[in-house]
Amino acid sequence: MKATIYDSFEDLSENGVPGSIYYLDRGMAIRCPGCGKESCLPTEPGMAHQWDWDGNKEFPTLTPSVHSVGCCGWHGYLRKGIWESC
Questions:
Q1: In whole angstroms, how large is the CA radius of gyration of the chain?
Q2: Helix (H) or strand (E) holding 9
Q3: Which parts of 2-74 are beta strand (E)?
Q4: Which tens digit of pLDDT belongs to each residue from 13-65?
Q5: CA–CA distance, 37 with 47 (Å, rounded to integer)
Q6: Which of 5, 58, 65, 78 is the most exposed place for a label (fewest CB within 10 A)?
Q7: How many other C-beta atoms can be found within 10 angstroms of the C-beta atom of residue 15?
Q8: Which residues contact 34 (CB under 8 A, 6 or more apart)?
């Protein structure tokens, strides 16, 4: 599934679909690709449970995988702007 990138957090919160992304200062706000629950992924070095982001805002890649704990349990990767289930 292609990641939908939003220009504002409010737009993501109000209109976001599963797999949506909004870039924060220190991470990404996302909508779980499985169920659409909103959460945040820290990407700033030194933060707990940090993901490495390649810096590409159009086609982002994150490592390691994303495991949506506390909702549907979706597990997969964001690679070149595409969410891929494990």
A1: 12
A2: helix 9-15
A3: 4-5, 20-23, 27-31, 38-42, 52-53, 62-63, 66-67
A4: 999 999 999 999 999 999 999 999 999 999 988 877 799 999 999 999 999 99
A5: 22
A6: 58
A7: 12
A8: 18, 68, 71, 72, 73, 74
